[in-house]
Design brief:
By secondary structure, this protein is an alpha+beta fold. The chain is built from 2 helices and 5 strands. The protein has one domain. The mean pLDDT is 94. The protein binds zinc ion. The site of zinc ion has 9 residues, from loops.
């Protein structure tokens, strides 16, 4: 079930949600990505749910990066997708 505070970038920033990016193909992760950068690039109503981007973690990797969200103080990140 999708929490209402993951509705879009601006809402996640307002709720201080941590987002990690992960590529399962090359097994690379970037933790606690800066949502303000995404907001500046895509707008505050940009929605990361069920969204993937081309992997930039490893040169030549053909994988897709998935996003995970975690409530501050939460135990583990959850995939942003159904
Ligand atoms: Zn990758």
């Amino acid at each position: 079930m999708r929490p209402s505070w993951t509705a879009d970038i601006a809402t996640m920033i307002a709720h201080n949600v941590r987002v990690d990016a992960r590529c399962p193909t090359c097994d690379s992760s970037k933790y606690d990505i800066d949502l303000h950068v995404i907001e500046a690039a895509k707008g505050g109503d940009y929605d990361l749910w069920n969204r993937t981007t081309a992997c930039t973690f490893t040169a030549g990797c053909q994988g897709r990066v998935h996003f995970k969200y975690m409530w501050r103080g939460g135990m583990w990140p959850r995939t942003m997708g159904d």
